[in-house]
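Dissemination and training. As part of the outreach component of the grant, students in the summer workshop were shown how a complex can be specified as a set of sequence lines and then modelled as a single object. The example used during the hands-on session is reproduced here so that future cohorts can follow it. Participants entered these lines:
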Amino acid sequence: MSVIMLNVNPNRPDLSKIRLAAKAIKSGKLVVFPTETVYGIGANALDGKACMKIFRVKGRPQDNPLIVHVSSMEMAERIAEIPPKYRKQIMALWPGPLTLILKAKAGIPKEVTAGLPTVAVRFPSNLVALALIKAAGVPIAAPSANVSKRPSATEASHAASYFRKGVAYIIDSGISSFGIESTILDLSGFRILRPGAMTVEQISSAFMKRPILSPEATAKGVKGKPISPGMKYLHYSPEKPLLLFTGNRAELAKIFKRHGNDAAFIGSEESCMALGDLVKNKLVLGRRNDQRMAARNLFRYLIKLDSLDVNFGIAEAVPENGLGTAVMNRLRKASGNRECASAYEAERFIQKIKAPKMRHKAKSSH
Ligand code: AMP
Ligand code: MG
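and obtained this result:
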């Protein structure tokens, strides 16, 4: 059966539509719904068979556990143990874009936890997400609404292009407010497993201590077994190759002098202005100091890159503080760590990107 779109007002969710979607969740079907971070693809978290469908339609490896969304503290306590010493701080940050790794209570299907003794729990603030969970009356397990490895969906239309079947409803409430996934905090070690929409600074100020940034949170590669299974996988990648550029504008201009017709630029308004006519395809993230806008536009542009008439993209690095930490984590993963600081370094990646095509051309000309 084809997917049904439901348009729902983000500020005053239409309850008749929410009930339809909640009924689908209760009967073991999948529903794509908005949260303040990105769109999620959800199933009843207490129904292992329903959760299995998420893995199937996303093509997600089964050892990658799911985040469970709740609509109240009571619901969180039904599935996980909230450490009493952190309760006050958690209540200060929830509802919000923060996922906590907590000890799981009995009865959570292994499909959700991937067999771990812990469960990832989030209490979102998005009104549509809250209305859906409340109406369903069960916690909803939901990873991001994208096919595995691809950029997360920040608009309902992205999810619609990823999932043409296998989903009962897609609830459309417009563009995601943050546009980047939740921060994952492992309370047992007080470490961030994935930087996200809640900043290190916000967490530090609520808990009065600074969390450690685990190696997997930097996306620079993890040796051995990661604490968060999902972090070892390729992520957020457009189909076209992406380079992450960390150098200055003079070097950037040198790259585009050579490849201006071949490459799209994803970067700040200021850099786009400086590059001027050197680049045909510019995807403007926003003003350099507007981290909120950069986060909101990031996945949208990674998805858009694939529809442009170019061979690759070059994304500009952003300062690594506030939301910038999460943006850089996604850019590193999306670029497969093709990081360069000069035109010379960039050229080495570009030649490699072009090499298979040239080989293909040589072959086909015989
Ligand atoms: P997604 O919802 O697709 O954005 O990804 C959810 C992330 O949460 C994955 O990277 C998982 O590895 C991580 N996660 C979920 N449950 C746990 C858990 N119990 N312990 C550690 N990480 C988890
Ligand atoms: Mg994801």
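The two ends are 46 Å apart (CA to CA). Students were then asked to discuss how this feature might be tested experimentally.
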